[in-house]
Amino acid sequence: MLDVAIIGCGVVGAAAAYELSHYPLHVAVLEAENDVADGTTKANSAILHAGYDPEPGTQMARLNVQGVALAKEICARLDVPYRQCGSLVLALSQAELPHLQKLYANGVANGVPGIRLLTAEETLAMEPQLAPTVAGALFAPSAAIVSPWEFALAMAEVAVRNRVELYRSTPVTNIEKIDGGWQLTTPNGSFAARYVVNAAGLNAQAIHEMAAPHTFTLEPTRGEYYLLDKSEGNRVNHVIFQCPNENGKGVLVTPTVHGNLLVGPNAQPVAGDDTACTADGLAFVAAAARRSVPGIRFGESIRNFAGVRANVDTGDFVIGEADGAPGFIDLAGMKSPGLSSAPAVAKEVTKILAAHSDLPEPKTDYKDGRTRVRFKELPPEQKAELIAKNPAYGRVICRCETITEGEILDALQSEIPAVSIDGVKRRCNAGMGRCQGGFCGPRVLELISKTLGIDPLDVLQDKAGTNVLLCETKTGRGCNHG
User: Given CB 3.0 to 4.6 Å as the disulfide criterion, which of 183, 296, 455, 467 pairs with 176?
Assistant: First the structure.
């Protein structure tokens, strides 16, 4: 029997796995998709929020401020792209200034470090390309940007290195109470566990209701984005917010850790994981963003995407043991600031285990830390040394991002190997540049096929069913898919 089964390996599930891997516990992670961070975690604003937005006294307020500080430490330790650029919430008219005062008071009450109010002149001095109508801003220096999928992946990789078991393509279809714990049914067999951690993201309500009565309702909300080329990457130097409203933090403009500019999202209620981009949604995003930064050149867009966040009717994170279901722990309703809060949310699990006297002393042989080769960032002498040891690092596959064959092979041979083209992309950035994989995609597919021993026809773009190739056309094996 497992000590803990974690359902879901987005950033919250990965953080729980990383935290629990510090202890001599038998832990397994059951992920429905074929890769980690393949849901909301891979399609969000990539921002570690400072913590002034949540209402004081909520779990979001407490865990946001704790989580963003822990995330900074974890990113440094695990070699995750991170940049503490700070954020500005703009008042775009005199009428919005009182709202900045409210956010400032929240921030002070929540313990946000260094937060302060700026005049219009101070704001425009920091960000000259903002709209001239800016009346003031709230500045939070502790806000940061991050690579969200690599943040989750890094924590999951280190957890696996420290003997946490990861089962991909293993959705939980049924949960039953058994003596001493819970029985989880999946297409790949059953798992018994003394504790269950529900970190299932958009599926967290369904997972909860397999084990306990209904207590919360998730409200899936789609957000659409523009990802702009690096030619727009220096348009702003901070995360730029507008005053939030009932739909969330509103449309933002932010640099990314990879040097691009990200603009979005809107907030559209949807059924399930509907990640379609719409003309109306993108038009709304562009028009709203120009209120803050009028000069954005949306013609430099290299990709549009959408993510669905798990808004919840409770107005706060759902964290703790479910009523009438001892040992079943919900980490649900992880809307923004879920990414920022994830490391602190994970510590709530260990607190629950400790309260049951089920948390042993930490391991003495823990293998922490992580590094990744980023060839283009190395000085010339290190590049030459690396190529001498492994010539694959001397062959550039992705020209837009200067990603080498060696880095792609690393992604296919790590603790949690990529199994798809987008899985490689998330691990080493191949295909993330201006052409979005148009040039390097076929070469990445070939490397996946050869390295993993997969028929090229079975190589996926991303999730199950996203086969890139349908048939061979030059060998007599004609297509038969109509």
Answer: 183
Q: How far apart are CA 193 and CA 304, in angstroms?
A: 41
Short-list 470, 465, 418, CA closest to 444? 418
Phi and psi angles of residue 405, each rounded to the nearest 5 degrees, phi first: -60, -35
Three-state DSSP class for residue 102:
helix
Burial level of 211, CB count in 10 A (0-12/13-18/19+)? Answer: buried
The total number of residues written for the chain in this structure: 482
Per the omega criterion (within 30 degrees of 0), is the bond before 337 cis?
Answer: yes
Q: What Cα–Cα distance (Å) separates residue 267 from each residue in 246, 336, 437?
A: 10, 12, 28
Structural Rg of the chain based on CA atoms = 23
Least Cα distance to 18 among 439, 375, 345 occurs for 345
Q: Report the catalytic residues.
A: 49
150, with CB counted inside 10 A (0-12, 13-18, 19+), is buried
* Cβ proximity of 276 and 235 under 8 Å: no
- DSSP assignment of 156-191 equals HHHHHHTT-EEESS----EEEEETTEEEEEETTEEE
Distance separating alpha carbons of residues 255 and 262, to the nearest angstrom: 6
Question: Can you give the pLDDT of all 482 residues of the chain as single tens digits?
Answer: 999 999 999 999 999 999 999 999 999 999 999 999 999 999 999 999 999 999 999 999 999 999 999 999 999 999 999 999 999 999 999 999 999 999 999 999 999 999 999 999 999 999 999 999 999 999 999 999 999 999 999 999 999 999 999 999 999 999 999 999 999 999 999 999 999 999 999 999 999 999 999 999 999 999 999 999 999 999 999 999 999 766 556 899 999 999 999 999 999 999 989 999 999 999 999 999 999 999 999 999 999 999 999 999 999 999 999 999 999 999 999 999 999 999 999 999 999 999 999 999 999 999 999 999 999 999 999 999 999 999 999 999 999 999 999 999 999 999 999 999 999 999 999 999 999 999 999 999 999 999 999 999 999 999 999 999 999 887 655 565 54
The distance from CA 281 to its chain's CA centroid, rounded to whole angstroms, is 22
pTM of the model: 0.96
